[in-house]
Amino acid sequence: MAKNADACGELETENARKTAASKIFDTARDLFYQRGVRAVGVDEIVCEAGVTKPSLYRAFKSKDDLVAACLRESGREGREAIELALANAGDDPRARLDALLCHYGDKINRPDFRGCLMSNVAVELPEPGHPGREVLQECKAEMREIFLGLTKALPVNDPEGLADGLILIIEGAIATCHVFGTQGPAHSMMATCNAVIEANLRR
Which tens digits make up the pLDDT trace of 135-187? Predict the structure, then answer.
């Protein structure tokens, strides 16, 4: 019985650690998105999560590692959402590109939209080698590859230029939301993207 009791105690401790790690992660991710990485400290994270500071450092080696973990999960979710949108669009190249643009348009129009977490953090973490910056650079590179794969399937002379142009429009629209909201310049994102695509198709 003593052995079983010890095993149960170890299991409860392990479950408690997993619960604390989950609370820390969810709280940090929300705070980072709402307030920014630099503005949110470890003390605030553990206070909001209702856990102790040692719990945070048992789950994550440092705040930098916690930031990287939050970005990695956001990137994974973003890829899944894009893959679903593209799968639902079928095989037609233009329909797939339109689906990707609509995906970003829908994100911008959400009531809780506060910009792109990756882009927001990129401004806050300019130093090379930061684990969070490495994650966001990988995610942005993947985004560019997805656009380039789609534009290469279209009958255009400069698929790379088209892909980069569309990314510039989308990133610009997202950035302007911080000042003008979704009904400012961002409201023209879809029309501008479509105009650029049509101009490239006519060349």
Answer: 999 999 999 999 999 999 999 999 999 999 999 999 999 999 999 988 889 99
Task: Looking at the structure, tell me whether residues 136 and 193 fall in a common domain.
Answer: yes
How much is the CA Rg of the chain, to the nearest whole Å?
Answer: 21
Kindly report the pTM of this predicted structure.
0.86
Q: What string of H, E and C letters represents the secondary structure of 95-133?
A: HHHHHHHHHHHHHHCCCCCCCCHHHHHHHHCCCCCCHHH
Distance of CA 15 to CAs 11, 22, 60, 140, Å?
A: 6, 10, 16, 35
Domain that holds residue 196: 68-202
79 in the same domain as 38: no
